[in-house]
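Quick review question:
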């Protein structure tokens, strides 16, 4: 079976919903059509299942989701209003709770670098910290400078730290996309209390300056990204 849970905002009521085959930046044909489920829309979301008879297709979706994307169509944009590349989630969760997962994008943020000695001699900029405000007023920093441990703190004082599971390059001018395991570090109830995994996606900018530098110099490089918080 093909299960789907979709929520949207800032666009009209969907008229079609498909999964296409196509890596990032490429277009491809429709592989799964979820359009018939749109009759079950409640508010701005829909959850449902369609029968998929192609077992090989399901295996490809499971093993290489990045080779597929979802396309949501509206009356205003019949060719597709919202396109979203699929991404693999490492942890498991009850699909009935899928809509509890949420995205928070960077409102304003910088990757912080410090000029440090490098092996073999000389100096170069290396990660010191991050300073970002995400949607929902989530504050994103390192636990402490040079710790290498990122944290996210919500206004309700729920919080998590992250440990990198995997990195995916996203072009020379952009920091990598990340899959991180989340560990609760704040209150046991609240926005982030049940987060088990965080995806950093759609990164823009934030790359450390190249070349030599003066020891101890600290710089902040603006960046953008979407963070997806996956719940238990």
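Suggested answer, residue by residue:
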């Amino acid at each position: 079976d093909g299960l789907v849970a979709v929520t949207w905002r800032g666009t009209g009521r969907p008229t079609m919903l498909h999964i296409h085959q196509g890596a990032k930046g490429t277009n491809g044909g429709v592989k799964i059509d979820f359009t018939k489920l749109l009759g079950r829309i409640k508010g701005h979301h829909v959850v449902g299942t369609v029968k998929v008879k192609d077992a090989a297709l399901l295996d490809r979706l499971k093993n290489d989701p990045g080779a597929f994307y979802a396309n949501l169509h509206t009356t205003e944009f019949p060719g597709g209003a919202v396109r979203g590349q699929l991404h693999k989630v490492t942890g498991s969760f009850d699909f009935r709770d899928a809509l509890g997962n949420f995205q928070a994008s960077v409102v304003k943020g910088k990757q912080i670098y410090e000029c440090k000695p490098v092996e073999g001699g000389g100096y170069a900029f290396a990660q010191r910290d991050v300073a970002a405000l995400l949607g929902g007023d989530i504050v994103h920093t390192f636990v402490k400078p040079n710790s290498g441990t990122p944290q996210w703190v919500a206004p309700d004082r729920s919080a998590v730290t992250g440990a990198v599971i995997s990195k995916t390059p996203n072009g020379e001018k952009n920091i990598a996309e990340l899959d991180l395991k989340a560990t609760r570090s704040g209150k046991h109830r609240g926005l982030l209390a049940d987060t088990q995994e965080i995806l950093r996606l759609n990164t823009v900018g934030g790359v450390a300056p190249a070349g030599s530098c003066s020891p101890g110099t600290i710089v902040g490089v603006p960046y953008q990204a979407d963070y997806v918080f996956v719940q238990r």
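Why it works: The longest helix spans residues 55-63. Residues 204 and 224 are 5 Å apart (CA to CA).
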